[in-house]
Amino acid sequence: MTKALESAVDSASAAVLARYDELAALLATMGDRPRCDPDLSAVATAALLHEARLLDAGRFEEWLGGWTDDAVLWVPLSAPAHPGRDQSLLLDDRRRLAERVEWRRDPAAWGQQPPSLTARVVGGVEAWPAPGGGLVARSSLLIEEHRHGRRQQLAGYQVHELVGDDLRRRTKILVVAALGTGVRNPSFLL
């Protein structure tokens, strides 16, 4: 390996590890935050309800369009967690999210044939200004999923980092306690 290639690999690795530390710190600080900003919380509520509606309607391409290029969707198996040290159900960047959306449309994707029907209830939205601009929001989440005549309910919370004037998703962390004990086919989680 040449020195230039070695340096590029080291730089890329450092960036990934820094992002992992950022995700872990964001998750870890949710319980210690001060009272939320009511105006930001109202803005965040509209964005999170819109995301839930897109997912429940199966409008995955439009949902994907609401992410930044450096996006990360992280679904840890427990909290607190660190994506570099602890197991995760999902740890997807923007490219992997696009693959996941494409997979949802593939008739050969047996894990989603027939597709899950979901209803998300988003509540308790709290938001704060993010250090680099935008906002950070925490919300409670209940997902009811129906597939093959069976249903399951998953409860948890989600953390979003929303950036830009159009509040694009840069980060989404979905924490569902039941994941640590086993869930029937969680392939519908996004």
What ranges have pLDDT less than 50 throughout 5 or more consecutive residues?
none
Strand percent estimate: 25-35%
CATH architecture: Roll
What is the helix/strand order?
A: HHHEEHEEEE
- The number of distinct β-strands equals 6
Shape: globular
What report would you give on this structure?
By secondary structure, the protein is an alpha+beta fold. It has one domain (3-188): Nuclear Transport Factor 2, Chain: A. It has 4 helices and 6 strands; from the N terminus they run αααββαββββ. It has a 6-stranded mixed β-sheet with strand order 2-1-6-5-4-3, sandwiched between helices. Strand 4 and strand 5 (150-163) form a beta hairpin.
What order do the helices and strands come in, and which of them pair?
Elements: H1 3-28, H2 38-56, H3 60-64, E1 67-76, E2 88-93, H4 94-105, E3 117-129, E4 135-147, E5 150-163, E6 168-176
What are its keywords?
4 helices, alpha+beta, 190 residues, single chain, 34% strand, Nuclear Transport Factor 2, Chain: A, 6 strands
Could you give a quick summary of the protein structure above?
The chain has helices at 3-28, 38-56, 60-64, 94-105, and strands at 67-76, 88-93, 117-129, 135-147, 150-163, 168-176.
